[in-house]
Design goal:
Strands 3-2-1-4-5-6 form a six-stranded mixed β-sheet. Helix 2 packs across helix 5 (about 75-85), helix 4 (about 65-70) runs antiparallel to helix 6 and helix 6 runs parallel beside helix 7. The radius of gyration is 46 Å and the shape is elongated. The chain has eleven helices and six strands. Strand 4, helix 7 and strand 5 form a beta-alpha-beta unit. The relative contact order is 0.11. The protein has about 250 residues and is α/β, with parallel strands linked by helices. It has helices at about 1-20, 30-40, 45-55, 65-70, 75-85, 100-110, 125-130, 150-160, 170-180, 185-195, 245-250, and strands at about 25-30, 55-60, 85-90, 115-120, 135-140, 145. About 45% of the residues lie in helices and about 10% in strands. It has a domain at about 1-150: Rossmann fold. Belongs to the UTP23/FCF1 family. UTP23 subfamily. It is found in: Nucleus, Nucleolus. Keywords: Nucleus, Ribosome biogenesis, rRNA processing.
Length: about 250
């Protein structure tokens, strides 16, 4: 079963690498429910997670997830100690904390641009994650870490990209970087896309004038007439005499 689980995980990771540009080190957002399940099942997250995902990982959480464990009391003190060992990523709720499920969903935005894995046992959070394309989901079952298969939203997104209906995240990023290099803003692109309306111009006044007919009003030169009785002189061409005939005359 271990080899089968590893093979399935490798196939799922390849799907996210190829279609959503996931790269190592994999960033894994962990909430309190996952750390509590790992504590109960005696799972060493730092040791087992890189082996299971077959690559380098960065384990991280948010301040909202830590705050939530503090408010839940001493029963989750061990889960809080585990979660404190990971990197704390900045969220938008520093001054006013929100539930961990809401915070983690806000970190993913609409398309998971930072390529986070999410490790959770929260069913509410899991349902929200499956509405966002390109979010690998990790959970614990039967004392093992499991990487869930791609959700239907991710599969539909990939199919739409292949059909040319959508632009993949990698293509979006390359377009953004090209625009930044060339200094093209979105407003400039919109202006260039719009067609200019031609102003209505008045007709050329010279084109309104009537055209003059050729020869009208212009005197024609008189034809040269020959005087009466005057005959045309015809020019005759004399033929050259042959030298042989001249020689015959002289001999006679």
């Amino acid at each position: 079963m271990g080899l089968k689980r590893q093979k399935q995980a490798k196939k799922t990771i390849s799907f996210y690498k190829y279609n959503f540009s996931f790269r190592q080190p994999f960033q894994i957002l962990i909430d309190g429910t996952f750390s509590q399940a790992a504590l109960k099942n005696k799972i060493q997250i730092k040791e087992q997670m890189p082996k299971y995902l077959m690559g380098e990982v960065q384990l991280c959480t948010t301040s909202c997830a830590l705050k939530e464990l503090e408010t839940l009391g001493k029963e989750l003190y061990g889960a809080k100690i585990i979660l404190q060992r990971f990197q704390v990523r900045r969220c938008a709720h520093f001054k006013s904390p929100v539930p961990a499920s809401e915070c983690l969903l806000s970190m993913l935005e609409e398309t998971n641009p930072h390529h986070y894995f999410v490790a959770t046992q929260d069913h509410t959070l899991t349902a929200g994650l499956k509405k966002i394309p390109g979010v690998p989901l990790l959970y614990i079952i039967q004392n093992t870490i499991v990487l869930d298969k791609p959700c239907q939203t991710s599969l539909d997104h990939v199919q739409a990209v292949q059909l040319g209906e959508l632009v993949s995240p990698a293509q979006q990023q390359s377009i953004r970087s090209l625009k930044e290099e060339q200094g093209i803003d979105q407003k400039d692109g919109e202006r260039r896309g719009r067609k200019r309306k031609r102003k209505q111009s008045n007709p050329n006044p010279l084109s309104c004038l009537k055209k003059k007919k050729k020869g009208k009003g212009v005197p024609t030169p008189p034809l040269k007439k020959t005087e009466e009785g005057e005959k045309r002189k015809r020019s005759r061409h004399k033929k050259p005499k042959d030298d042989t005939s001249a020689a015959v005359v002289t001999n006679t």
